[in-house]
Amino acid sequence: MTEDQARADLARLAASIAAANDAYHRKDTPEISDAEYDRLKRRNLAIEDQFPDLKRDDSPTDQVGARPADGFTKVSHAVRMMSLGNAFDDEDVAGFDSSVRKYLGLGDTSLTYTAEPKIDGLSLSLRYEHGKLVQAATRGDGETGENVTANARTISDIPTRLNGAPDILEVRGEVYMSHADFADLNDRQEQAGAKPFANPRNAAAGSLRQLDPEITRARPLRFFAYAWGEISDPLAETQFGAVERLKGMGFSTNDLTIRCHGVADLLSHYRAIEEQRATLPYDIDGVVYKVDDLGFQARLGFRSTTPRWAIAHKFPAELAWTRLETIDIQVGRTGALSPVARLTPVTVGGVVVSNATLHNEDYIQGRDSKGETIRDGKDIRIGDWVQVYRAGDVIPKVADVDLSKRPEGTQPFKFPTTCPECGSEAIREDGDAIRRCSGGVICPAQAVEKLKHFVSRAAFDIEGLGAKQVEQFHGDGWIQEPADIFTLEDRFSNGLQQLKNREGWGDKSATNLFDAIREKRTIPLARLIFSLGIRHVGEVAARDLALHYRNWTALTTSVDLARPAALAHRAADREEEAERRAAAQDGRRARVSDVRSATIAACSVSEDATAAWADLVGVDGIGATLALSLSDALANTDERAAFDRLTAMLTIVPPDAPSNDSPVAGKTVVFTGTLEKMTRAEAKARAEALGAKVSGSVSAKTHLLVAGPGAGSKAKKAADLGIEVLNEDGWLALIGDA
To answer: What is the pLDDT of residue 65?
Structure first.
């Protein structure tokens, strides 16, 4: 890294960390995870260590928290409120212990520490004079905080008078909210139509920092005391003794705080607290270690923002252990039966997690998609103690099981073979990891999910008709399939009157909804195809199909014609798989190509059906799997009838007419090999804009093959068929882009 690069990186990091501090400490709405914040801080420190002369005046290394928010009077802390250094693994803890002993000149002498859970809440300083609470202040930037005295007085864990306290005593600790109280608060928020809080920490911070103390009083806040600031007389000779004295004065202290002798004891207690994490009634994100001897603490002193005598051993930000309470089976719009773990709520990466995906029945049994053993073959059962993880913002997953905590008498989970929603048979096809409901449109779960997909942003995107309204209208029997949306207003004597009298609806919102529905009677072909929720048909595939077939009738006619070839293809797939399994058992080489040819020949598929199938799978980006799914959907009597009822009500707009004056207009082009001057996507888009059809395979209908380096079988087939072949430069020259 050069100095210029380091300078630019430090500027970027300073801005990012300052924004994160502001969001977390002032606005109570964190924008990045704790793990990402810690990563930015470590990166900043590493660059400063490498280029000390480039350290900025506003370096995040020298800052604590964020400036106080507007709306509160400011309080200057008599003793600065510090942050803690972080340890992320056992080696960091050993390094902390070594540095402390080295600083004190203790050699190999073992030190005594305290270890306590690190509460994930909001730091608060309480100032008592002659035993009376006179001031409460948030940490702010460490030097100046917000005066929240009136709010603090509403918290039952905070005594307003103390007996036996020094004349001046600043008690410091953490304001937090228990899991149960957080759930109750969010229930009240939702009932009042207010936005629910993301996690207990945000709820606690937002509740304490209210300008109206009565709002704080209505919020169930708690307080743990664990430290002190300015003090006129010592509380004790040790950290543990001082906390015990605070407890004697009436403060709540954490009963998981213990004395530890050396690193091994610290790590043992860390593991013990980590195992209890999910069952604790409050959120924690690590364990704090402090030198117990207050005389040693005084000698060790402070760095610019952290004490030398304490460190926070953070839990892995995206991992936590908790109890699996039950397993539910959800049915999606394609009929997939998806197992969901219902968990004892636990905070993972700053988010309260109560559900996690279990993928499929194989995953529950301890196998991956290839049948290989995972988790050392441990299955997942109701009642198990499980490890949950999050990677980024994806759905939480169950990663591991602690068999030592498995309750006696538990039974392996029996995956259902019938749909829990409609009772139809749930089928698992060969080679598919997912079991699917065969009920189709008669399955209420599939119907609702398909309707939600139908009104999604990339589909019909009907303003005022989202997932919540779809569930409501379906539950009331107003809409059962997409076509019902367009008869919603007419199916009652007065649709507007019916709707506007419902809770949450008024004259204006009802009128706007019906106007929006009428507007969407005209829809582009690509959006229509995507909106149908056909398995494997995403936005890109829908666009490709629309560009190739140009109108709905042409698409359905061609797919119908290709149906016998589609069924032959599926039969050949199954025979191939059977041959592979038999060959593996017999120790011989599988003869899949011969088996495939024989199977297709036995199906006696007509030339027209074969040609229609080849045309379908030849569309660039449309493979056999997607083509089969499309064919199945259109061949399903109930689904096809629903599609027909819908399309009869719509004006379907074809894609923009392609150029007809280019040298490739109306021609079918195939790209193969490596393109060096444009991406494959760019080449495809350019060809389509010039009126060409882009196919993924070479056939007698192909007019032109563009071959880059590495072209293989497609180039050979084109040569055999006498198809014109151009290199990339020739293609660019042909279309005038050279």
So the answer is: 46
* Tens digits of residue pLDDT in 155-197: 999 999 998 899 999 999 999 999 889 988 888 888 877 778 8
Q: Would residue 27 show up in a list of annotated catalytic residues for this protein?
A: no
**Are the beta carbons of 561 and 601 closer than 8 angstroms?**
no
Is pLDDT above 50 for 68?
A: no
What values do phi and psi take at 568, rounded to 5? Answer: -65, -40
Mean pLDDT of 434-442: 85
- Residues 6+ away with beta carbon under 8 Å from 607: none
DSSP 427-484: E--TT-S--EES-GGG-HHHHHHHHHHHTSTTTT--TT--HHHHHHHHHTTS-SSHHH
Which one is catalytic: 41, 55, 118, 132?
118
Q: In the chain, what are the domains?
A: 3-63 (1.10.287.610), 85-314 (3.30.470.30), 320-427 (2.40.50.140), 439-520 (1.10.150.20), 530-653 (no CATH), 668-735 (3.40.50.10190)
**Average pLDDT of span 640-645:** 94
Whether 325 shows a pLDDT value over 90: the answer reads yes
Confidence of residue 716 (pLDDT cuts 50, 70, 90): confident
SS3 of 520-585: the string is: CCEEEHHHHHHHCCCCCCCHHHHHHHHHHHCCHHHHHHHHHHHHHHHHHHHHHHHHHHHHHHHHHH
